[in-house]
Amino acid sequence: MREDIRDFRQLFLRDAPMMDTRAPVEFAKGAFPGTVNLPLMTDPERQRVGTCYKREGQDAAIRLGHQLVCGEIKEQRVAAWAAFARANPDGYLYCFRGGLRSQIVQQWLRDAGIDYPRVVGGYKAMRSFLLETLQQAVAHCEFTVVGGMTGTGKTEVLAGLPNALDLEGHANHRGSSFGKRATGQPAQIDFENRLAIDILKKRDAGIERFVLEDEGRVVGSCNIPLELYQGMQRYPLVWLEDSFENRVERILRDYVVDLCAEFVAVHGDENGFPHFAERLLQSLDNIYKRLGGERHQRLRALMLAALDEQRDSGAVDAHRAWIEGLLGEYYDPMYAYQREAKAGRIRFIGDSKAVSEYLGQFV
To answer: β-pairing, 164-165 with 142-148?
Structure first.
């Protein structure tokens, strides 16, 4: 029989399979990559037991819990836990604090002939460990930030570096007003957990100098951890440059061709394009106030015409018109101002090859 575990570091370094026995509402607020939610109680059951606990105490709450989860319901849940245990013999189970719920699941599995270990301290202890991992990295590691105009390919440069932390990847968002993807973003806690585990694994591999893309405080709906974001306002900056034409083509590929394909993959051939078109128009509408009425109306008309042509023929050439307008009239002036404000922190300027070579010396 494997023993219960309290070595959180090894859990995350090994990507150990984990069964989360908390209620679905708890799981949705935040969990760990690859975990599977197989709750002891449903949300309504947990609510009833919690109310009973407040009114009548722990013993009464435990009795109610056993009344709610019994007979066929209990058999079904034990069968699901047993299937997970057999499919993941090197895994673990946990609840919120590693207490009563995980102990009950563990005992019911044992009654079914399966000894399965649990995580001592549960979700709360693992979450605290990951928050501490983030804080320690910010305190003890070195960071460099990659900035540049929209469309210069900052994400591509980072993808080629073993010491990069992909904030946009962890947030499942491209960072800009147009960065929302066809698939949803993780919960804030999930985003932080993914980032912390990434840091943990890289530091375990000996990496102590990290590279980040220059971002605002939020990446879509995900907030960059405050300590890290504050550091990003003073870390050395590398500025990536590319031609206007190349940037237009990169944005056309990322935000039109690839994003449309993503929506089709998620929603199917019939519904994918309408969802994509709606998302693109909504992204432009989201910056209406910053664009101003006349400019927004003009760019929206260009976008609508391009979408009509793309829908009818599959051609995407017409999208270049609104992309060029958005870059030249909106994004470039904004980024030029930001670059001027950050000029004192810029350590290197170059194209993707030069920047990659410069950053490569810090790995």
So the answer is: unpaired
Asked if residue 296 and residue 205 are part of one domain, the reply reads yes
The β-bridge partners of 93 are: 19, 118
Q: Considering the entire predicted model, what is its pTM?
A: 0.92
**95 assigned to active site:** yes
Q: What values do phi and psi take at 146, rounded to 5? A: -105, 120
Alpha helices, H only, 205-258: 226-232, 244-252
Q: What is the distance between the alpha carbons of residues 269 and 264, in angstroms, rounded to a whole number?
A: 5
Beta bridge partners of 349: 239
Assigned domain for 301 exists:
yes
276 and 148 belong to one structural domain: yes
1 band by pLDDT with thresholds 50, 70 and 90: low
What pLDDT digit, counting tens, does each position of 305-344 carry?
Answer: 999 999 999 999 999 999 999 999 999 998 888 889 999 9
Quick one: 28 exposed, middle or buried, by C-beta within 10 A (0-12, 13-18, 19+)? middle
Phi and psi at 36, nearest 5°, equal: -120, 130
* Angle, CA 87 vertex, CA 84 and CA 90 arms, to 5°: 95
Question: Are 65 and 174 part of one and the same domain?
Answer: no
- Between 151 and 98, whose confidence is greater? 151
Return the biggest CA–CA distance within the chain.
71
- Number of domain units in the chain: 2
Taken as a whole, the chain contains a residue count of 363
Name the least confident of 58-62, 157-161, 172-176, 259-263: 58-62
**List 52, 70, 95, 260, catalytic entry:** 95
Q: What is the mean pLDDT of the chain?
A: 94
- 70 and 21 together in one domain: yes
Who's near 312: CB < 8 A, 6+ residues apart?
A: none
Q: Are 274 and 354 in contact (CB under 8 A)?
A: no
User: Is position 1 within any domain?
Assistant: no
